[in-house]
Each structure stands twice: as C-alpha cells, then as structure tokens.
Amino acid sequence: MSPHPKTTCVAIRSPRGARITEIDWADGHKGFYPHTILRGYCPCAACQGHAGGPLSFIETTDSQRELDDIAQIGNYALQLTWFDGHASGIYSYTFLRALCHCETCRGSQAP
Ligand SMILES: [Zn+2]
Ligand SMILES: [Zn+2]
After folding, report:
1. Which CATH number does the domain housing residue 101 bear?
2. What mean pLDDT is predicted for residues 53-60?
3. Nearest ligand, CA 31
C-alpha cells in the first residue's frame, strides 16, 4: 500500500484542553476537526452499533470532546483516546480526510 498524499498525515496539532484538532496532509491541505464532529462520528462499533450504512452522528458531552491521547496506527490511521476513557475509535486517514471541516471542505460537502 503506497501512501497517497491526500491520505498521508504529516503533522497533528491538538493542544491539550482544546476542542479542535488540526491535521496537516502531505498534499498541503490543512485539515480542521472540531471535536464535536470528531467524537460525534466515532467509527467504533460501540458508538455506531451494527456495521453497514452511513455513520450516525452522536451527541456528546463536554468531557467526551476532550482528547487525552492520539496514537498513530501504522501509516494509515489514528487511534483517539478521549477524556472519558473512550479509546476504541480507529480513524483511518481516508475517513479523516473525508471528515475534514475546514471552510473549503465544508463548502464542497453536502450539509
Ligand atoms: Zn466510539
Ligand atoms: Zn479541508
């Protein structure tokens, strides 16, 4: 699997206590991820229930929107650990790229 610039993460900025994470992609795109969205679309089975179909958006409380840790999984995904201890969400770079909420991406996506 050769890394594609659009789905290759080069830097992650997620200041402790912040509610926003920024990811720089190898093609120069600056990804913007409010934690409401990031946690709201947690792709793990516990959050999403049975597999299949589009991801559903989950309402979160404030402590569920604070990131405790970010771990890189190989060169294809991030595992996010949230302040409430939830750590089963594996966010592939392809998924994260699609989830980007910067002004450009938000404008090109369906509401
Ligand atoms: Zn989850
Ligand atoms: Zn974007």
Report:
1. 3.30.2020.30
2. 89
3. 2
CA of 31 to the centre of ligand 2 (A): 5
Gap from CA of 26 to ligand 2 centroid (Å): 13
* Model pLDDT for residues 27-48, shown as the tens digit of each residue: 999 999 999 999 999 999 999 9
Range of the domain at 10: 5-108
Q: What's the number of domains the chain is made of?
A: 1
pLDDT score at 111: 46
Q: In sequence order, what are the residues at sequence separation of 6 or more whose Cβ sits closer than 8 angstroms to the Cβ of residue 7?
A: 25, 76, 92, 93, 94, 97
Query: What pTM did the predictor assign?
Result: 0.89
